[in-house]
Amino acid sequence: MASPLFAREFCAYSNCYCEENIWKLCESLRNRSDQPVSIDEFFVVFISNDAKRTPLWMQRSRRGSDEFVLWDYHVILLHVAQDQSLVYDLDTTLPFPCSLEIYVQDALRADEMLRQCYRRMFRVVRADAYLAHFASDRSHMKTPAGDWIHIPPSYPCIHTAGMAKKKGAGKSKAEMMRAHKARLKADPEKHRAYLEEDKARYKERKRQGRIRNIRDLNERDQRILRKKWRMEKRKKNVEKDQPGMETPRRDQFTPPLTPDSAGTRYATSAADVISQKDSWASSHRKIERSDEKTEKLIERLRTSRILLKPSTLESEIPASTETSFWATK
């Protein structure tokens, strides 16, 4: 094997930021004055699958000697020369660089031994195109609370030359929204105008029937709709011995306990239970009367084709995946 173009100890490396590590590797290759090879011989390879659970062996993050690591995706650099092909992977325990045959045999291993959901997909990009078009704000490496999942690299976020650096680049969408709201609240007049415009846009979307999901509603309408669902669910709990009487919740009444004749056990008075149920039913009728005010809104929501199913609230909308981005092995 020819002498390596890069020494691992001199390469920029950040744990769990493989795409940026490879970008820095390509950048150092482009900026070298003593260029022994052409950058056209280098390709960036993305490894992932639809489930975003890609097994790779011989990784530095593994726990055992022969255990694999499940990455959501992984990025390596491939050098295709006339005599042989070399793989540059800063996260592997294999030699750096490593021949493609050894990397496939030890790190990738055969897809036939994997279950269908874990089989890998590959996308190959020219190194010069990767340098020209790759950009990242690192928002995918933050929790919903804004904390880093892994410590980010010390250098700024990568932005391509043809892309204008936006104000607030490097921040997550939630952080930019919080900063925007803070700027609006600092100016009461601007904040009031923004709220009026947002309210007008919301009403126009409802009028045009463009609201398709409960998540598109504002907070007030969501509360009203959830309350309506709770009441409908409660009305379905009918006691077998008393048709038409809804079963009260446990926290709505606790029947008083009276000692029996022996004084050792406790029994419930039937008269007390009936009176408690009557008082509960009267309070329930008040709730029903207040619900009549929401019927008009509920009807408008139904005409807007909103998903009026409780399961919509319980299930999460899965994140979309760009499956066409990948080319199968």
From TrEMBL:
Residue intervals of the Protein N-terminal glutamine amidohydrolase alpha beta roll domain: 13-164
InterPro entries per the UniProt record, alphabetical: N_Gln_amidohydro_ab_roll_sf (IPR037132), NTAQ1 (IPR039733), Prot_N_Gln_amidohydro_ab_roll (IPR023128)
Q: Which UniProt keywords apply?
A: Hydrolase
Reactions performed catalytically: N-terminal L-glutaminyl-[protein] + H2O = N-terminal L-glutamyl-[protein] + NH4(+)
Annotated region described as Disordered, given as residue ranges: 232-264
Q: Which molecular function GO terms apply here?
A: protein-N-terminal asparagine amidohydrolase activity; protein-N-terminal glutamine amidohydrolase activity
Assembly notes: Monomer.
- Family per similarity comment: Belongs to the NTAQ1 family.
Per the entry, what this protein does is:
Mediates the side-chain deamidation of N-terminal glutamine residues to glutamate, an important step in N-end rule pathway of protein degradation. Conversion of the resulting N-terminal glutamine to glutamate renders the protein susceptible to arginylation, polyubiquitination and degradation as specified by the N-end rule. Does not act on substrates with internal or C-terminal glutamine and does not act on non-glutamine residues in any position. Does not deaminate acetylated N-terminal glutamine.
Name of the protein this chain belongs to: Protein N-terminal glutamine amidohydrolase
What organism does this protein naturally occur in? Eptatretus burgeri (Inshore hagfish)
